[in-house]
């Protein structure tokens, strides 16, 4: 399927393959020159954000909102509804990243929760596809960590009562809480709309190398997810294949997540997401019928009323896993000069849950890497 995004007319001309690598002083020959001439304020630092998943779009939006001003352009080969982020169930329940301090993960989650809570509490909620949802996380044995680090970020966190646990005869322990859910494609469209309203163009282009953005851009923020295997030469980034089902079951109002989250039932605005799978190193984007049957039967074991669900659809996405989040500035030296890059990828199975907090940090880092803006042209001296 092709891209569903309508680009500003003046940018259509950019949607063509580059003819070669850029070289020092070749700003005028770069394929992105059109952005400067037609759309971009020349006196501001030029920042390219590579990627239009939830990480790229939120980072671009934070950059466009944080001062001092810079001119932001998003470059991506896939946009909603064709990204991994579109497949995400969109639940705000954190995934734990072993290499990142818990205090940092909690900060990212809290900032994301607060940001989405404000949206859910506003007239934008439906357009943005963000809503509150209550439910249970259940365990077959008591977990070692009885109170997770995010317990005081979500709302009303408590242990499940014996009466609630009666619904789940195979489970002995659980948490009850209220969190947020993003309808992923709706939220991505809303972020795109916000970006366009802030004058940020979204350019459709597949990059073979981040150097293609040099020297047209002063800083490149790499939010290419799994694409970082190629663009950052990072062989640690690996796909973690996830298959989910979406069904119509409007009577299911509570989420159910089993243990670490391999099996889940997440009700949304118009359908219920049933999951899932985590297959490391698997690249196949085609749904597998046997896997779908297995997901459905696991979910029905938790919520038997799902046997009456209709309108089943299957989706597959490849989580950018394997290495954990890389949020880091790098100066890459090459024959053509120095490329300032801020890497922001590797969010694995929890990118939606931390996207806004991590995007704020990536945007601050990118802003601090940008060279001082050239002075705007001086006004002509008045004639006396
Ligand atoms: C089944 C499933 C369920 C999930 N459920 C949840 C959940 O409930 N909660 C949660 O927090 N997370 C969930 N996730 C994880 C979440 O989807 C990811 O963490 C998140 O989408 C990663 O976002 P991203 O923007 O980094 O990557 P992506 O969405 O993959 O975006 C990458 C972008 O980079 C672009 N790109 C890549 N290479 C290039 C290139 N060479 N040139 C130009 N552009 C390029 C792509 O076109 C795309 O626009 C789930 C994932 C799956 C698969």
TrEMBL record:
<comment type="similarity">
    <text>Belongs to the DAMOX/DASOX family.</text>
</comment>
<dbReference type="InterPro" id="IPR006181">
    <property type="entry name" value="D-amino_acid_oxidase_CS"/>
</dbReference>
<dbReference type="InterPro" id="IPR023209">
    <property type="entry name" value="DAO"/>
</dbReference>
<protein>
    <recommendedName>
        <fullName>D-aspartate oxidase</fullName>
        <ecNumber>1.4.3.1</ecNumber>
    </recommendedName>
</protein>
<keyword id="KW-0285">Flavoprotein</keyword>
<keyword id="KW-0560">Oxidoreductase</keyword>
<feature type="domain" description="FAD dependent oxidoreductase">
    <location>
        <begin position="47"/>
        <end position="365"/>
    </location>
</feature>
<dbReference type="Pfam" id="PF01266">
    <property type="entry name" value="DAO"/>
</dbReference>
<comment type="function">
    <text>Selectively catalyzes the oxidative deamination of acidic amino acids. Suppresses the level of D-aspartate in the brain, an amino acid that can act as an agonist for glutamate receptors. Protects the organism from the toxicity of D-amino acids. May also function in the intestine.</text>
</comment>
<dbReference type="InterPro" id="IPR006076">
    <property type="entry name" value="FAD-dep_OxRdtase"/>
</dbReference>
<keyword id="KW-0274">FAD</keyword>
<keyword id="KW-0576">Peroxisome</keyword>
